[in-house]
């Protein structure tokens, strides 16, 4: 067989010498493969795979230099699945079929435009396919690289001999050769023009002529895009691997499947369902056309507006396009229409009612091999979802429990000293294998003396003998850590639990430092060290949903059931009651009201007049505030008003504001008269309908470095 293959390749190379001999062109493996579309190789056909990166390039120009360095750098950076050329094709596959599959199943597409790129019909056909993937949303990133050419070379191509584009001569040859019809040639021209208008990297301009610098810039951008798809699991993911393997066995990922498959994961809060679901996602997402992980469905989809928002996010993430959904039923229709023919991975985390299932999983069919994973605290949800397989989550075993606790209580895996060993055993026993409890209590006890440990154990033992549900006992364990905080740490914890989840830590610090001084940075670090708050890879504030629920429960308890005495108001019905009855008091620290886009809610300034301690005001939708703004609370620090209908904001609102977010608003002026503001920082207003420029602000405004005029 091998001898036959060698003979075939020899004959093809001789043929190419005859064809190209008069032109004096070098004959290489690349030109042979490019001309014939056939490579004979021994062995059986291997299954087709997905790729991280597809490199579209002209081999003779850049293969042995730039592309070789780039692909090696990708591999060294942890991106091994890179389709470079026909050498990436498995034995027994037809070249173009394999290339087309690789294009359609790559996440990132890089086109390297070199001086002779346009001479290759293969390169141009690949480019047309790549741009089709881009327009359909399949490509997470299309990156043009201009290697000793300029975007104008791609943009201004014609058949004239006087044309300055280095690609014009290649197109004159395509036209006169007669091997390609005029419609296909026009497609190539259109594709090059489209690519020229995409922001890319240039060897001469971006990297000042240094190839190594260009490689580094490309790899950095690709890593940024691909790493956004990797979900953070945990610093110490103890016991996850065994559960992951069990879940993958149930899902039968590597077996051919008719239709789509659902896995339901259930168990009490804090047992590790979300961690397992994220591990599943990270392990298999590359095998799918599109993929999405929706965390915290229960809290996100509590209202119709929230459920609609989740549907929009699903479509946007899976199709890489923005879709507007007008109703839940419209959202279901859109999901069915756009996703039914795709092989998808969809993970819905923390589902808690039937409406969520019906709105987010309306599919009767999906492409073969699609996978859906649902996590929930309620086993009945798994039945309602008609899951093909179910996995009940249990706590960690004793060995893993000690290991995880030791990581957080002693910052090591080893057994503690004899002085603490017995106490550590009692704490681990009380946590009953729940990772969240082990992590939180371990961090709470880290660095504390024997007396502190003994007091904590006594509190835990008191809870063990109380006849309350197991889930409630977990919350009581978590409260031990909260009760050990200082007053300002508690305040910040409640701010995060009620208003600031998902916010960038710089925004949060700006607010707290304006109120508590620079010590606020230390308080936030204390919350992080105690595992009560986490900061993700994009530096956004996060916390476990049990900790969030505990914080909100504490707010309600402190109000003695009088909603107007709550320090934080986030529930829509509570907010409306307080505003309608003008019951605001100095206890209120923050108000969050997200109204429906098509609705209009009007509130008088008097509704806020009693809230002398108001620091947060977060409005969205068509909310309106009218009246004498001189009566408005003077201590406001964080002001968000998405889709604000006003053309200007009265200066009285902004005297102490340090975070201002007016996304999608009609604002054209932020001041009236000669009022001068205190120093304020503005965060960029994403998706604003009117651009907000620094010139609109008084001279003593301070702008962050990422604000662009």
What does this structure look like?
Residues 49-226 form the TIR domain. It is a single chain. The chain is of the alpha/beta class and 709 residues long. It has five domains: 1-30; 43-227, 3-Layer(aba) Sandwich (Rossmann fold), CATH 3.40.50; 240-392, P-loop containing nucleotide triphosphate hydrolases (Rossmann fold, 3-Layer(aba) Sandwich), CATH 3.40.50; 398-467, Helicase, Ruva Protein, domain 3 (Orthogonal Bundle); 487-547. Helices cover 44% and strands 12% of the residues. It has 26 helices and 19 strands. Strands 2-1-3-4-5 form a five-stranded parallel β-sheet, sandwiched between helices. α1 crosses α2 (29-36) and α17 crosses α18. The radius of gyration is 30 Å and the shape is globular. The N and C termini lie far apart (66 Å).
Provide mean pLDDT, rounded. 80
Distance from N terminus to C terminus (CA atoms, Å) equals 66 Å
Strand content: 5-15%
- Helix-and-strand structural type: alpha/beta
- CATH H-level homologous superfamily name of the largest domain: Toll/interleukin-1 receptor homology (TIR) domain
The first-level CATH class of the largest domain is given as Alpha Beta
The 3D shape can be described as: globular
**Sequence stretches where pLDDT stays below 50 over 5 or more residues:** 1-47, 672-709
Number of helices: 26
Question: The CATH topology of the largest domain, please?
Answer: Rossmann fold
Largest sheet: 5 strands, parallel
Helix content: 40-55%
Using the 3D structure, state the CATH architecture of the largest domain: 3-Layer(aba) Sandwich
In total, the number of strands is 19
Which strand order spans the largest sheet, edge to edge or round the barrel? 2-1-3-4-5
Counting structural domains, the number is 5
From the alpha-carbon coordinates, what is the Rg to the nearest angstrom?
Answer: 30 Å
């Amino acid at each position: 067989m091998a001898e036959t293959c060698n003979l075939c390749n020899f004959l093809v190379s001789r043929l190419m010498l005859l064809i190209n001999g008069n032109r004096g062109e070098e004959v290489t493996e690349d030109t042979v493969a490019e001309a014939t579309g056939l490579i004979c190789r021994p062995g059986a056909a291997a299954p087709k795979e997905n790729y991280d990166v597809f490199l579209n390039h002209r081999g003779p120009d850049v293969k042995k230099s730039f592309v070789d360095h780039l692909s090696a750098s990708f591999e060294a950076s942890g991106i091994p699945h890179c389709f470079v050329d026909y050498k990436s094709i498995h034995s027994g596959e037809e070249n173009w079929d394999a290339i087309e599959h690789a294009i359609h199943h790559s996440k990132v597409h890089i086109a390297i435009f070199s001086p002779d790129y346009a001479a290759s019909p293969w390169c141009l056909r690949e480019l047309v396919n790549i741009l089709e993937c881009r327009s359909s949303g399949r490509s997470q990133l299309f990156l043009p690289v201009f290697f000793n050419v300029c975007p104008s070379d791609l943009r201004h191509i014609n058949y004239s001999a006087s044309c300055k584009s280095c690609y014009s001569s290649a197109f004159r040859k395509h036209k006169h050769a007669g091997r390609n019809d005029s419609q296909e040639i026009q497609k190539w021209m259109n594709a090059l023009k489209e690519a020229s208008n995409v922001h890319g990297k240039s060897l001469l301009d971006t990297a000042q002529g240094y190839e190594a610098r260009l490689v580094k810039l490309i790899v950095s951008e690709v890593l940024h895009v691909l790493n956004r798809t990797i979900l953070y699991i945990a610093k110490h993911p103890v016991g996850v691997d065994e559960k992951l393997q069990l879940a993958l066995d149930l899902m039968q990922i590597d077996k051919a499947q008719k239709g789509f498959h659902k896995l339901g994961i259930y168990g009490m809060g804090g047992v590790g369902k979300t961690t397992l679901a994220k591990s599943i996602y990270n392990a298999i997402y590359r095998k799918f056309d599109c993929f999405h992980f929706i965390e915290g469905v229960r809290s996100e989809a509590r209202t119709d507006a929230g459920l609609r928002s989740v549907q929009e996010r699903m479509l946007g993430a899976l199709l890489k396009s923005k879709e507007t959904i007008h109703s839940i039923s419209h959202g279901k229709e859109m999901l069915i229409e756009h996703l039914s023919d795709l092989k998808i991975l969809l993970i819905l985390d923390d589902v808690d009612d039937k409406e969520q299932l019906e709105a987010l999983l309306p599919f009767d069919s999906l492409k073969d091999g699609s996978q859906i994973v649902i996590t929930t605290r309620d086993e009945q949800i798994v039945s309602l979802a008609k899951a093909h397989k179910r996995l009940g989550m249990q706590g960690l075993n004793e060995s893993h429990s000690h290991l995880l606790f030791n990581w957080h209580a002693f910052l090591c895996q080893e057994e503690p000293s004899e002085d603490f060993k017995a106490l550590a055993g009692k704490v681990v026993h009380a946590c009953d294998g729940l990772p969240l409890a082990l992590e939180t209590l371990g961090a709470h006890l880290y660095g504390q003396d024997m007396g502190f440990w003994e007091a904590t154990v006594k509190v835990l033992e008191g809870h063990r003998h109380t006849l309350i549900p197991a889930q409630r006992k977990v919350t009581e364990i978590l409260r031990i850590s909260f009760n050990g905080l200082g007053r300002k740490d508690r305040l910040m914890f409640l701010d995060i639990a009620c208003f600031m989840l998902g916010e960038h830590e710089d925004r949060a610090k700006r607010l707290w430092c304006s109120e508590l001084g620079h010590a606020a940075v230390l308080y936030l670090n204390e919350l992080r060290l105690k595992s009560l708050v986490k900061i993700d890879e994009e530096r956004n504030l996060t916390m476990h949903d049990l900790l969030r629920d505990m914080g909100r429960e504490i707010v309600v308890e402190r109000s003695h059931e009088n909603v107007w005495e709550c320090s934080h108001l986030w529930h829509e019905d509570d907010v409306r009651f307080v505003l309608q009855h003008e019951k605001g008091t100095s206890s209120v620290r923050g108000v969050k009201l997200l109204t429906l886009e098509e609705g209009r809610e009007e509130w008088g300034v008097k509704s806020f007049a009693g809230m002398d301690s108001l620091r947060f005001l977060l409005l969205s939708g068509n909310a309106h505030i009218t009246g004498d703004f001189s009566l408005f609370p003077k201590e406001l620090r964080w002001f968000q008003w998405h889709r604000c209908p006003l053309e200007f904001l009265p200066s009285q609102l902004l005297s102490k504001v340090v975070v201002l977010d007016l996304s999608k608003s009609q604002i054209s002026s932020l001041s009236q008269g000669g009022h001068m503001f205190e120093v304020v920082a503005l965060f960029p207003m994403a998706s604003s309908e009117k651009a907000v420029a620094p010139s609109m602000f008084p001279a003593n405004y301070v702008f962050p470095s990422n604000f662009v005029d």
